[in-house]
Amino acid sequence: MSEKLLVVFYSSTGSNTQLARWSKEAGEAFGAEVRIRQAQELAPDVAIDSNPLWRKNVEESKDIPVATSDDLLWADAIVFSSPSRFGVMASQMKQFMDLQGGLWAQGKLANKFVTAMSSAQNPNGGQEQVIQGIYTVMQHWGAVIVPAGYVNVSTFAAGGNPYGTSATIDGEGTMQNAANVKAAASDQVTRLLTITKAYLAGK
Ligand SMILES: Cc1cc2nc3c(=O)[nH]c(=O)nc-3n(C[C@H](O)[C@H](O)[C@H](O)COP(=O)(O)O)c2cc1C
């Protein structure tokens, strides 16, 4: 039986969409069954239309369903990916988490294997804090957190964040050092699934 991997992201201008798509690819390469899902957009059209990159990302990610509680129930392992918003996760991602109080109260979110990724405009624009914020919620859910650590050389080339892959996005929306970030994200997902698989085999 293959591992069930859920990739949940929020993205305005496409960078976390890209991290999520790379995560999906890595999950499929591992042999997992993968669902990719996005947090429900909360911003009004007037805000989205104020930034052509934002509208472009909305159009280009239309095929990706909105994340639901059922996706969480289904998953053995989860990748979360959110941009930095003043050093915390995007409100859209937090809203998705906040909607899970019912499942949490029933103990149905416990024992999921999770890891997280993030992006910001600056190399130190809050990526570490965003990932730690996601991990804080995961501790409340009783998840098993699988950080990137320093176990793959790709982590160093991507900027050396042991909490999870971090991307830096310039003012034009271009991801810096993208090939190395892709490699780190892929290795992070492979590590998540390797540990999930070992746990499921021993159950
Ligand atoms: C409201 C808001 C707050 C932000 N705060 C920061 C910040 O404090 N530091 C930073 O480097 N980037 C900040 N950014 C930039 C975003 O993190 C960056 O655009 C995002 O990571 C790109 O990811 P996306 O393409 O998936 O939307 C902010 C962006 C917005 C819209």
Any overview of this molecule?
The protein is an alpha/beta fold. The protein has a single domain, classed as Flavodoxin domain (Rossmann fold, 3-Layer(aba) Sandwich). It has 9 helices and 7 strands, in the order E-H-E-H-H-H-E-E-H-H-E-H-E-H-E-H. It has helices at residues 15-30, 45-48, 52-60, 69-74, 91-98, 101-105, 127-141, 153-157, 178-202, and strands at residues 4-9, 33-38, 77-85, 88-89, 113-120, 144-145, 166-168. Strands 1, 2, 3, 4, 5, 6 and 7 form a 7-stranded mixed sheet that branches. Helix 7 links the parallel strand 5 and strand 6 (144-145). Helix 1 packs across helix 9 (178-202). The longest helix has 25 residues, at 178-202. Bound molecules: flavin mononucleotide (FMN). Flavin mononucleotide binds next to helix 1, strand 3 and strand 5. Residues 5-193 form the Flavodoxin-like domain. GO terms for molecular function: FMN binding; NAD(P)H dehydrogenase (quinone) activity. Pfam families: FMN_red.
